[in-house]
Amino acid sequence: MKVGIVGATGYGGLELIRFLHNHSAVEQIELFTSSEEGVIFSSKFGHLVQIADTPLQKIDHDVLAQYDVVFASTPSGVTSELLPPLVGKGPKLIDLSGDFRLKDPTSYETWYGKKAAPFTSLQQSVYGLTEWNSEAIRQATLIANPGCYPTAVLLSLLPLLKEQLIDPNFLVIDAKSGISGAGNKPSQTTHFSEANENFSIYKMNTHQHIPEIEQAISIFAHVDTTITFNTHLVPMTRGILATTYAPVLPGITEAQLVACLQTTYEKHPFVRIVTDSNSLATNRVKGSNYCDILVKVDSRTNRATIVSVIDNLVKGAAGQAIQNMNVQFDLPQTTGLDVVPFFI
Amino acid sequence: MKVGIVGATGYGGLELIRFLHNHSAVEQIELFTSSEEGVIFSSKFGHLVQIADTPLQKIDHDVLAQYDVVFASTPSGVTSELLPPLVGKGPKLIDLSGDFRLKDPTSYETWYGKKAAPFTSLQQSVYGLTEWNSEAIRQATLIANPGCYPTAVLLSLLPLLKEQLIDPNFLVIDAKSGISGAGNKPSQTTHFSEANENFSIYKMNTHQHIPEIEQAISIFAHVDTTITFNTHLVPMTRGILATTYAPVLPGITEAQLVACLQTTYEKHPFVRIVTDSNSLATNRVKGSNYCDILVKVDSRTNRATIVSVIDNLVKGAAGQAIQNMNVQFDLPQTTGLDVVPFFI
Amino acid sequence: MKVGIVGATGYGGLELIRFLHNHSAVEQIELFTSSEEGVIFSSKFGHLVQIADTPLQKIDHDVLAQYDVVFASTPSGVTSELLPPLVGKGPKLIDLSGDFRLKDPTSYETWYGKKAAPFTSLQQSVYGLTEWNSEAIRQATLIANPGCYPTAVLLSLLPLLKEQLIDPNFLVIDAKSGISGAGNKPSQTTHFSEANENFSIYKMNTHQHIPEIEQAISIFAHVDTTITFNTHLVPMTRGILATTYAPVLPGITEAQLVACLQTTYEKHPFVRIVTDSNSLATNRVKGSNYCDILVKVDSRTNRATIVSVIDNLVKGAAGQAIQNMNVQFDLPQTTGLDVVPFFI
Amino acid sequence: MKVGIVGATGYGGLELIRFLHNHSAVEQIELFTSSEEGVIFSSKFGHLVQIADTPLQKIDHDVLAQYDVVFASTPSGVTSELLPPLVGKGPKLIDLSGDFRLKDPTSYETWYGKKAAPFTSLQQSVYGLTEWNSEAIRQATLIANPGCYPTAVLLSLLPLLKEQLIDPNFLVIDAKSGISGAGNKPSQTTHFSEANENFSIYKMNTHQHIPEIEQAISIFAHVDTTITFNTHLVPMTRGILATTYAPVLPGITEAQLVACLQTTYEKHPFVRIVTDSNSLATNRVKGSNYCDILVKVDSRTNRATIVSVIDNLVKGAAGQAIQNMNVQFDLPQTTGLDVVPFFI
């Protein structure tokens, strides 16, 4: 397989390189850019010396059309123009941005404050939540890779909502992310001296992942709901932990919630159900494609606390993108992704 | 004033020393310990050379009885035996542990798993949430200084509950703390290589601060409620951010919530109401006795998000203890505490 | 005293505010800026709400001339033009930048790559290494506050060089700094995700503090030497630790080195000589104006290891600047600076 | 290949598992322990669920004798007794501790303060600095895997010393390590709240890696020297950066130093010579087996600054151990180790 990565200088792109380097089915990786044509990639990223000593190439649709897969890890608002001309031209297209996730262009424009992708492309795109959509992914040309927060939230909630074990009318999702989620562009918020030793809330009630989560709950769990969702910045580089609170429906027990999750993900290599409430932490999954999930019911309130962790750059971005590529090419989902989490 | 600190080697004790050193009404500070009598304090804590070069003294009730104030920053389960003999013997007693906070000994024994303090002492103790209990504090002999999480949570919720602006029946509190909250005793959880670059949930639905929060809501807001409360560990040393979700009661607006908070704390020097939703962060209050509070209502769900930040070791422990001492001695509350937060 | 701060938005400026807020002789603090006239300072820095709710003022030399002290914490290359017109107009001038430190304009232009300040101003300026130059500081109008690295290095080396206890011909200085030393302007190097969990060397053999150190050794220890000096970036916000290696001169013992340091700084409240080799760490001095120094001689090589720590923003910048102001106004050096280090 | 790991619960052991999991020649990995027989490994380390769900086994020499390779990642003082009975019994033995590194038992006892391994075993052991000793490693039964600091230091210095380009009589080595180097056992020094935001020097002139470095310089560069060596603790988990200062010998240029390093390591896949002085940082090698080296000569002093970085747990421990195993089994050195560094 011949793989092209557009937007390789972003953190999503760097993680794609990290995993594709050890992917047994990938023979060639080329890197494309809008602005630094000819620059040797490893001269920008010293950790890639001897690994990616190739020049960045100009984005050219005729050239890209000859690849088996094209990953776009460009920002939202860019891929909406970049990928549509390539649809049907040959390559499988996997977009890591938010541009093709929302089916409703009005919703996109409201939450992203940018012009939506062409309506036809939005219709063609397939939501790449691998564990829940693999049939459609297998046949898709254009994949909208899920957002980092939605991945963590949906994997933990969808089974419980679909099986009608928790009340969809009071879903409170309190999410926390490492700072790499903000990308590689320096800003005051991500300036070390101001982000270090600091914990903050941001985009209160206005995060663009809200409609993505609601849309996926509607499609995969067949429930229409309006969620409460807030995001916080953790002084660490990688990792998302999402804590969701929901009333348990009458007569439902903690054991049933656990069983539902276990049954749902029994055959899925990257989702692990945790039962020891003292051991859910982002370092369980750091650097890996795992999503670990824990659920507890508070007998005092009969409310469930549902917690999930992922590495935002892996299962929340590049790892799931490669998992989707594996599905598209009928490879085992773990190909190139079977790595041990870092822990330390 | 002559001040004694029992348990000075803990982080609460160290912060007491940091602030009392610059307290204009304090003339003498002596440090007491159960196990290291005679050891020069600054030989254990190099940052205190030239500041606290005094020997640790043996705990002796006759000696302690001669002080104007005795702070106890010993662990829960210790002060319950240490302080009762001193009640009425002269000194004002301020306990930073959880031993005198819960009025119901059964509740203490359930949540703490330890033997409760004598019933009489529990009755005598006054809950030291300064902004809400200053009259009782002024006359108290034995003060139960609030827990770190309850301080952050109660200051933000009490006005809104008392004025019946939010629904007390669905309070979801998602709290996050820096690691100093775990104290100075090394453990696997607080081992740098395992705590760094890691975010985790702990004590799910079982934190001992739950009954403390519920009791204070009952007493100060006159509402009986059962809360959902969870705690997380943030890879930083200082700071607590608590995010509370609650339905807004019918007809109530965000402006009313903000106004209620502003009115409540108008005359209180250490509570600041924040209106810019992009600026609530623990580094706003780092090293200081401030509690900053922000409230937003999500018009999609009509639920309020109420966020507060404190420095867990200051407003959440030593700072509030000194604020209470100031109230007891009719000093301005800011005496010795009027410091600028660190930010960086 | 009426104090003006030009460049208040930088980290040096923020630290000046933090300390001057509690300075007993300072009655008024006004903040000046080149670009944000009228902006309420605390609207930019939320931690200063209720503390610095004043508007930023336009830089106006006639206005500044009416202050007792003007601190400039603007970048190098700016103060060289800003301060000279104010010399002799009334205020004491204290510059935190590098613009007035090097007496030789050619050297400045070589190491800083910028135009030097007017020669007359360079001649008038007094180097503000308080412990070594207080007589001149007392009478000075224009003070060049020392750089952060030079402060840590010089305080530890000058006594030993002046007393001819170590060999000046092979001084190897390996310095490490927290990231706040890079200032408040975001960059790729200081972007959290790339600075966190990373340790790097920078400006190899080319740091602009090299000539400053050599000049001060020449002036205060009467030795001309060419040093080896390198700097590293530590993934923390505050703190400098400088490790210097030097051969001990024949017949000199470790005890003599220690005694020399102790004698030199006996009367100086902010320099502490440490003798326990296990306890020198930047958290001993965090947030304070202390400089802690430790010296050990390796009997295998007869070389001394001389280590010093400071908080780069305090003793390395704002703290020493206020210490110099105190000297100029015949106040005790500790006025406003007598704070307990943070440790945690 | 069938691999046994004794002391799997340490950080070295965990890293062995991380890499061996993806080693194409390894079919079976079993974990041995002195104290927790029968415990399911992943119940202790949640990140290893589905990866290492095997029980810890009792250490039994007869069982271990049936393995192809036995890695010992037990502490110094333990392997000296554990491994000798296995020598010649079948398995290749690779010791990650310091017990078999020093040929002179007296030196071991002086620097480690423990009883040395049997003299015969010390004689049989081969120092596993792969790039410099691969012939002996290939034939060895018992490998003493190098220490983390020595690996970083020796790889950078040996070529320059062997080719007589730098002066061996004034080697000053200033080394800095992430905190994982202290192992997995909690202590006050590694307690998060005291290690975070703190930089310190430790074991001044007394680190047990000093004789190891001197011995290796003598053997591989044929120079007897007494080094100055100090170590510092960096508030991060992984990574070592060692900065060495040495006078350049007369007539030698920076270009010659660079060329010497490049020539030496031309054929070695894990050593990269860096020429851009702005890009040497521990995040270049994080999570990988690379050692990156940079040398600069200061024309003012004619002294070389030689800097190298490794991941202390990989090239400084488990990675190099596997690299040695690869050499012993005539596999390409990169087998199982060809991973992309993390950078972020």
Written account of the structure:
The structure is a homotetramer of 344-residue chains. The first copy, chain A, is of the alpha/beta class and 344 residues long. Chain A folds into two domains: 2-124, NAD(P)-binding Rossmann-like Domain (Rossmann fold, 3-Layer(aba) Sandwich); 149-312, Dihydrodipicolinate Reductase, domain 2 (2-Layer Sandwich). Helix content of chain A is 31%, strand content 21%. Chain A has twelve helices and 14 strands. The first copy, chain A, has helices at 11-20, 41-44, 61-64, 79-82, 105-112, 119-124, 130-139, 148-162, 192-195, 209-221, 254-265, 314-328; strands at residues 2-6, 28-33, 57-58, 69-72, 92-95, 126-127, 142-144, 172-178, 200-202, 228-234, 240-247, 271-274, 291-298, 303-310. In chain A, strands 3-2-1-4-5-7-6 form a seven-stranded parallel β-sheet. Chain A has a seven-stranded mixed β-sheet with strand order 9-10-8-11-14-13-12. In chain A, strand 13 and strand 14 (303-310) form a beta hairpin. The relative contact order of chain A is 0.15. At the C-D interface, strand 8, strand 9, strand 10, strand 11 and strand 13 of C face strand 8, strand 9, strand 10, strand 11 and strand 13 of D.
Element order of chain A: H for helix, E for strand:
EHEHEHEHEHHEHEHEHEHEEHEEEH
Task: Provide the CATH architecture of the largest domain in chain A.
Answer: 2-Layer Sandwich
Question: Which oligomerization state do the chains in this entry correspond to?
Answer: homotetramer
Strand content of chain A: 15-25%
